[in-house]
Fold this protein.
Amino acid sequence: MAAVQKLPVSSLSTTASNYGSCKADTVAADQFPVGLRVLVVDDDTTCLRILEQMLRKCMYRVTTCSQATIALNLLRERKGCFDVVISDVYMPDMDGFKLLEHVGLEMDLPVIMMSSDARTSAVMKGIKHGACDYLIKPVRLEELKNIWQHVVRKKWNENKEHEQSGSAEENDRHKRGGSDADYASSVNEGTDGSWKVQKKRRDAKDDDDEGDLENEEPGTSKKPRVVWSVELHQQFVGAVNQLGIDKAVPKRILELMNVPGLTRENVASHLQKFRLYLKRLSAVAQQQVGISNSFCGTVESNAKLGSLGRLDLQALAASGQIPPHTLAALQSELLGRPTGSLVLPAMDQPVFLQSSLQGPKCVPVERGVTFGQPLIKCQSNIAKQFPQSNISVEDIPSGFGTWSPNSLGTVGASGSFGGQNTQNNNMLMQILQQQQQQQQQQQQGVLLEPSHTINVQPSCLVVPSQSSSSFQAGNNIVPLNQNSSFSSSAVIDYSLLSSQSNNASLGVGQVIDGDLKSTGVLNGYTMPASISPSVSSCSVLADHGTGWQVQNSAISLSYVSQLPGLVPNACEIQHSYDTKAAPLPDQGPGRNLGFVGKGTSIPSRFAVDDIEFPTSNSSHGKTYMDNTGGRVKQEFNLDFVENAKIKDAVFLGKKISSLGKLSCFPESHPRGPRCKEEVLCDVI
Amino acid sequence: MLGFGADRLRADMNRLLALLFHQGVLDEQFLQLQQLQDETSPNFVSEVVNIYFHESEKLLRNLRGLLSDRELSDYKKMGIHLNQFMGSSSSIGAKRVRNVCVAFRAASEQNNRVGCLRALEMLEHEYCYLKNRLHELFQMEQQRVMAAGVRYPMQN
């Protein structure tokens, strides 16, 4: 473990420097939260005076203001001079909520609302507007003693946002205490790509921070923070308006803003907040959901929300948004190896663009159709599948019902999302590589024979394990991977893809045949991606990445619109990741005996043994071997050699092919070794 | 003799406070207010209560003005005033005033003019009672401090 942890540190010079600064901060403010800078805004001078005295008793530095407009000006003039704002709700010159929105958008400070109005509607309004707390008058000293927590929490959340890694990081945080192993594994993910590595680095920093967090003064953040001044924000809004809120992606916004020093992450984070803000303005209840779907814009996947709700909505949203925004960057990053990304850059980008553009649109089916047509040769088939896909969705629930028991039994922990997440995270990390490989494989499969893919789809159901991995890979790009993967994976493309490639099998496996059709649609998305790869076989990876992301977004949409009932399913699906293996095997036998067993076994292992990845891989290989024969096993270890074999297998037997595809990824080669390495590190 | 007076005044103050608590005029928030008083702000309680009186009289005037318009009472504005009144009253621990404010606000939300007028009278009554009692308390406090100051010049 120690060796593993060192890896990121040594590789990252920035980490070391940050760490140093961190320590300095720690020394400077080891009496936190003493000296917390609080701005109190209340038109009621009685309360203002009492609060001031109370906050002084807490050893905070207090600034009071009896008018909201003056307070806002004060905040704008003295940016960075306050850590937290406490504001009354009802004020004559400016509504407290208005102030809250300004503060949230412009300076991103934690705002605590307070009012004598204790009605649920009033409190809910505060929450909707983004208040981090709502105090009911009379405010008591005990409550104020604790407000520093919001400052710390905000800081953590910011770090999360910056990393754009949603659930995974959170899980890490939750596990923080003794999750060295997990941490290491996550660090090792770097194999997936440079982007990942960067993320890891940030994680490493975070860990350092958190280690010293108690002593650290939240007010002084080590990382340079972008201050969104009014002008900057207006520039941002202008860029978003120019692009259209649905099509506004951080990269484009950044280009339009043309502000030196501003990074895509800054813009992405702000865009996320901005979208949240817009959501709040429109609909509160669905805001959270909307956030996750904000990508989609209009569609609000309540069902998804339910399932996703457990995960970080924002993270999900980020994940959803990220793929389209940063497709190109992500691709390159994800691919890690320049060669991989280089292979088919041109091809990939178009795909990405399409995906991203379509992403905003709420109708998944349409996207799928459009995508499928241009990209895939079998477009007609795909299109046909689309309508079916809707049907299949309905069917899915039933299928789920049957499957769910299986999944539950296997998953066990699946019920508790948190647990899953942690596992998933680890899994994800590990899986990412696999997923990528799978994607590659899928692409290959697709390339090989579109027709096969169609046929495969029914059989594909078995494959699920691989598909899950592919999902995660897509997710990997986004921090929230799991979330996105959940929604998408459940029904989505995987099955379709899986038919060709294993991907479909993961989510779909449970879904049933009907799902296959739907997956077919999704696959259609992926298919295009795969097609491009086929043109240039090597390039597939990048395409896959985009394709996946797109699919995810599409998936979520489809869920929402089509299957309100699916929500429970979605949950199951999520579970399915972990559980997938178990359910899949069951299904597999019924539908595709050979395939199922293979596919399922792999996923299950993944879910179960996060740390044991290497072993699991080997096991996977074995399982594959059983079903497909040597080809599958080799895939993991010998992706290159076996790829050809796998393809053949796929062609020969749809079921087999799917398995083979999963195991064998042409692109996986680069990643495969990395994965192995990571695994080794973890083991160490 | 003076020292004895100080002790007696303290006892009287405690009796008055106990009465006010018993009557539900004050609640424990007032005690928290007293705890906030320290050497950096030795007159914190009376300072805050005087601010409260000042603000409350403004609010009462406004409420009376809003209700005096027979045809067009601005109930929304009334609700905002009452909200502030509630907030400040509860913040100093004026429990009964706050409770009347709650009833008043309920009446204003129902556009119940009669109820509002009745509530306003109650509010003024409760407010006057509170003000008189607290003035009494502060006077005793002042006398106590003076008495104690005579005997123990260094104490304060």
